[in-house]
Amino acid sequence: MSRHLVRLALIGAVVGSTAVVACSDSTGPGTGTLRVQLTDAPFSSDSVSRVDVHVLRVDTKLVESDSAEAARAATGDSSSRAGWTTVATPDRSIELLALRNGITTTLGLSTLPAGSYRSFRLVIDPSRSSVTLKNGAVLTSTSTPNVSFPSAATSGIKINLTRPVVIVANDTTTAVVDFDVDQSFVMRSGPISSSGLTFRPVVRVK
Fold it and tell me: How far apart are CA 96 and CA 5, in angstroms?
């Protein structure tokens, strides 16, 4: 397969205003809107005609202070939802190869407190995701051959940013997350048509 990227555009805009405020505490109190979009870069493959990923939701986590993290630890809040905020709940299948040349699809909108967000996660439903080959065969998690998904697919594909997405009061913030489809679907010992694929998500930030 050739290189294939899917861009997840995370756009934060303050409700009711897009004017830039030049002040040192612009990331202080206030709320902003996070628009989540999906797009794709050009891709060609000799054997794959479409890749459908069923996206249940997108979560994000505000960067916490050391004291806030200590307080969370002290209360024993170690659940998988601790500190995470859901910013999109599309609950629909996205045909990734249809998103090319800057085409995007909006996954959802959410109002969030202004601040820095370093962690995102994409939660998918493997049972409703599939890869369709050009010979017409549809590979699912239960077909033969199949596409095997790790347990992290249902608990969340985590995206840790080297630099946080900062939602600033009265400003617009944009970050583009690239989902590398080519590297995320790994061939096994034989051809895809007989051996299937393994899903190992590779996500980067641009």
Answer: 9
- Separation CA 143–CA 128 (nearest Å): 12
Neighbours of 83 (CB within 10 A): 16
DSSP 110-167: EEEESEEEEEEEEEE-GGG-EEEETTS-EE-SSSSS-EE--THHHH-EEEEEEEEEEE
> What residue ranges do the domains of the chain occupy?
5-205
Return the pLDDT at 79.
Answer: 46
Give the span between the Cα atoms of 1 and 185, in whole angstroms. Answer: 10
* pTM metric for this prediction: 0.73
Predicted confidence (pLDDT) at residue 126 exceeds the cutoff of 80:
yes
User: Burial letters for 42-59: b for 16+ Cβ neighbours within 10 Å, e otherwise?
Assistant: ebebeebeebbbbbbbbb
Q: How far apart are CA 169 and CA 72, in angstroms?
A: 26
**Quick check: bond before 150 cis, omega within 30?**
no
- The answer to whether the CB of 6 falls within 8 A of the CB of 38 is yes
